[in-house]
From TrEMBL:
Region (Disordered): 518-629
PANTHER family reported for this sequence: GUANINE NUCLEOTIDE EXCHANGE FACTOR, RAL GUANINE NUCLEOTIDE DISSOCIATION STIMULATOR-LIKE 1
Organism of provenance: Helopsaltes ochotensis
Name this protein carries in UniProt: RGL1 protein
Compositionally biased tracts (Polar residues): 541-551
Location of the Ras-associating domain: 636-722
Residues in N-terminal Ras-GEF domain copies: 56-187
Domain Ras-GEF: from-to ranges: 223-492
Molecular function GO labels: guanyl-nucleotide exchange factor activity
Amino acid sequence: TTFQDGGEEVEDGAVYNVTLKKVQIQQAANKGARWLGGEGDQLPPEHTVRQYETSKIRAIKAGTLEKLVENLLTAFGDADFSYISIFLATYRAFASPRAVLELLLDRFGNLETSSHGEVANLNSLESEMVLRAEIASVLRAWLDQCSEDFREPPDYMCLLKLLDYLKNNMPNSDMESRVQNLLKQFQNQEVEAVDGFCSTSSSGLVDGEELEISNPEEFSSFQDHVVAEQLTYMDVMLFRRVVPYHCLGSIWSQRDKNENKNLAPTIRATITQFNAVTKCVISTILGTRELKIQQRAKIIEKWINIAHECRILKNFSSLRAIISALQSNSIYRLKTTWMFVSKDVLLVYEELSEIFSDHDNYLTSRELLMKEATSKFANLDSSEKENQKKSQKRLQLQKNKGVMQGTVPYLGTFLTDLIMLDTALQDYVEGGLINFEKRRREFEVIAQIKLLQSSCNSYCLIPDQKFIQWFRRQRPLTEEESYKLSREAEAAADTNILSPKSQKSMVKRISTLFLGTDVFTPPKEQPPKSSPVGGSSGESTDSASVSSCEFNHSETEDVCVTPVSSPEDPLKKSSVGSDKGYDSDKGSISSDKGSSSKGSISEPGLGSDSGSIPPRDSGPGSAPRALPVYNRQSEGSCIIRVSMDGLRDSVYKSILITNQDRIPDVTQRALLKHNLEPDAVEDYELVQVISEDKELVFPHDANVFYGMNSHVNFDFILRKKA
């Protein structure tokens, strides 16, 4: 089979990409070979005759809403077999379910008055049969893939409209009974908060219970694999409920508006759970002042072992949450405590941290996720023989149970990609047509989410109510509390019974292990900033706190978090979790501010280098087109990150700029992104952050693209003029 670019076809209200598909349908011996009695598949090419068939594939590239809905009925005829799935997964970015349903049923689905082009020349009976089959096919796919679109309590207007249409045009059909059952199901279901399952607030507790600081003995009583299984159970339940279209950049980026407080509840629930795990790790390590240094080190070891069990279970969400917590400022600075963590456990920690290394835009975690997405079990490789033996032994126990495993991803991976796509690609093209090529790109990410959700059905985990109740009872430490307790614990450790000789040997051991050198450089302490941590659910702010590393995985357009450690920090080889926030408009769950996309909220599908998105061929034979990326100017465009002065520095918005944009244009777009009055352009100035003590202030009418410093991070501040 070969493909050839057939160019574009333009119709009224639509533009199509055309591809010519050439397929060999027959190979036979030529006349001379047949006279000799030869067979086609046994002869060299010069003695055979091949017959080919060329077919045309039309894929809509852009169009009006009416054309896009009409194309649902003609896509199969145009050999665009994935169109219906792509449309249903992404249409919420540009239309409502009611608008699509009304067009489909009233305009194109009227069996009496329809003049649908594909059947216009057939007799009326054939027209009705063909159109009925097309409508039924689309509705069946809609109910199969996106039944949540019809959940509109208490009236269920769309579902009732659909039911009325089926009664009039397809009475007593399977489709009619199916819609009736779905309506009853919605009406009978009790309204429950999607995030109630994992909430750590008092509302999730049994009457009379209160939040409490973890008891080390109670925590130690849970076996490592039991904790990992229960965290995986909770993550699986939440991830399977995720509505894929909630992840779209154009939808997720609107969540911080006042009228959208309840937008994307399934994503918020996942964020809340991620934050609850990170805070649980921190509170179990720091919550009890009386712990001896060795006891605190044992708790750190236990969490590393739990993270390893999560790796075996292919739960990358809790795995990253635990690693991020251990790399948080309050835990990472416990350098004396870390000296008592055994060498073997430190090696496991290092290998787990490497999974989320920001090298090449998180290439390791992306490749691993794709490799294990549908595999039955984890593929464990360890550079240390002892760790390899231990891992294989645990994995063999899992295999002996005879139950396959799914894969729970770190959702920020996909949120980031979708935000980057939404920022880089336009919603509309020339003529005001909806850019459906953008939706095809977004569907590539949505399809990965759906595939992983399907794989989660393979898990067979039983809830342990004792652990779940313990987990819900944990009182998270505030940013200030964790920092204060961390200082107290380290001060107590400094007065411990370590002799200078033993202390020197431990320092040397850790230095050699992580740096290959005898030099140990302790991290600089970063006192907490005044911004509050976002409450027990971790959602009250838009991003992780810059200074604390307490994962307020909250929500921003491009959450940006300053890495806690410097490059020479021995215990933090990868800058992954440090103050990460599981969220971002950027589709992310966390990100680092000071480096080019370090820890940034970017993941699958974004090419190497700071959040770039790999080019995709628009069709066979077409040249790949480079998309604008963060921290790199390419083909007259790039993506910058703009935060508001006076707000949390970690909250920023991604702005696409070109070499034609001047200060007023960029300022207006930034104000809109931050939900501020765009008419106030004259009241603000745009500043590029060069370093901690240097910044570049732009003149009022400067060209941002040519005036910016392209050798530092593309981080900007919008500041109100004095």
